[in-house]
Predict the 3D structure of the following.
Amino acid sequence: MIVTVTLNPALDKLLTTDNFRLNQISRAEEIILEPGGKGINIGYALSVLGHEVVFMGFVGGRVGDYIEEKLRNFGLTTNFVHLENETRTNIIIVDAQRKTQTQINEPGPFVRPEEMERLKQNFARTLGYAKMVVIAGSLPPGVDPFHAVELVKMAQAKNVPVTINFSEGPFAETIKSHPYLAKPDIRISPTFMGKPMKFKRKRIEVLKKLTEEASIAMLNLGFESYIASRDEVYEVTAPVCQVASTVRINDALLAGAIDALLEGKGIAEAGRKGMATAMAITSSLKGEIESAKDVEVHLDRVEVRKIET
Amino acid sequence: MKLRKVKEIMIRDLTAVSQHATLREVAKILAIRRLAGLPVVDENQKLIGFISEADIIYSIVPSHAQKETVFLRNFAELTRKLSQAGERKVKDYMTANVESISEDDDTYTLADLMLGRNYKSLPVVREGRLVGVVSRAEVCRALMEEKEEGD
């Protein structure tokens, strides 16, 4: 069983519209409501790939109930702590004509100390059965990076490997605990660890640096992905493919890689599986995949290249 | 006709409390989740009991409450009793050795157990570990669907 912890889940409200402009009224054509938040997305992809996943974290209010119900309708196992405050909604505007995707994320509900405490207790109880813990996404108000560090250490104390996927602040704190797999979220900031991410050389430098702390590190900018261990670095790219929505690309890359690593594969194959999963997920507007077969068809099309450093 | 298994119809939710949790905490979870009771699990998620709304009410108003009516008339005294009750532990009020059903049992066995013992919901276990819950609503729906498939 894999445990995913989403401390700040969201209801992703995706609207499609043509010719989206600022300061103008637009009419939505398609409206899609899906549970979101990194841990949930990663867990969803892992479950399609055939893993038993327990979804943990915080949900609250009607939005929280909706997320939980949707996950259960998929036959997924939930173990959320329910908050007094309401879970956030993120708005994603997809303009197929202009080929733009605009996203606004809410900060999320305030989490009280006793609610964090309850999460830790629930988390401790599931560790005896977990073969991997994935802690991912932003932190809601009231939750500090040291709480995430505590969760990492609790899992490690029970010999459960940990995957972390945060933006720079919490990432910098948690990677010090030497997780098994680390992937920073670099979507919002153009720089990471003070280095501009638009230069490939800088990305490789960052990646090498991360493997000093984590056993395996991943990094991606859209369909340009990298995976590294202390000894090897691979660049993983996808051929030109049909993309409906890139909302869950980063999470799919990570889920595919975790799946391959749990099967005992090396990092090159993990990078490949990650990219194949991302290709399958992004071909659907909802970010859904039917079965592991939808991922397998892409495996041979992924390019994996070793980088000499 | 092949009957469906409990794991195909159960609600895969693991909301539960430890026996060391306080009644106040349980009451809060029950209110937020609109539930009538919660499974109690040990530190390895093994099912060890069940705590219900009735157990909590009993902790404040036990059946011998008449003897204490005098005290209860005093509002300050009642408030004190309530706040004390909130700090009491689940382990002293839960039903231990609670009935459960295995995720691999079939829906007929489940229905029989529920009706026979008048359970409204049951925890579902795998090797003693809590993996979900199942209520009469799920049993009802499952049995209706079994019938349709058999027609």
About this structure: The radius of gyration of chain A is 18 Å.
